[in-house]
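Backbone-to-sequence.
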């Protein structure tokens, strides 16, 4: 089962890169741009056919937003990276099925 967006469009091939870019913005303290990016990614996640993948994307966005707010930066960065890895693993498993 592939991860497809509604309407038959393939899922964003740059999703993982976008999540990492948003996290890089959080690391650099670019709160406005980072929040805009996580908002866009989060909005797109609601169109993912695999509900679990959409949930994991929103969880990763929430973890990145926590870094943007500056709460527990080291722990927050590690958690955000972990959440992004979970999204990547889910998408890889779904593409293999």
């Amino acid at each position: 089962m592939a991860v497809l967006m509604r309407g038959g469009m393939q899922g964003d091939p740059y999703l993982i890169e976008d999540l990492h870019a948003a996290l890089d913005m959080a690391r650099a303290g670019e709160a406005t741009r980072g929040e805009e990016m996580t908002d866009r990614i989060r909005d797109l996640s609601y169109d993912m056919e695999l509900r679990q993948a959409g949930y994991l994307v929103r969880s990763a966005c929430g973890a990145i937003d926590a870094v943007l707010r500056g709460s527990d930066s080291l722990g927050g960065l590690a958690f955000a990276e972990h959440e992004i890895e979970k999204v990547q693993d889910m998408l890889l498993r779904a593409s293999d099925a």
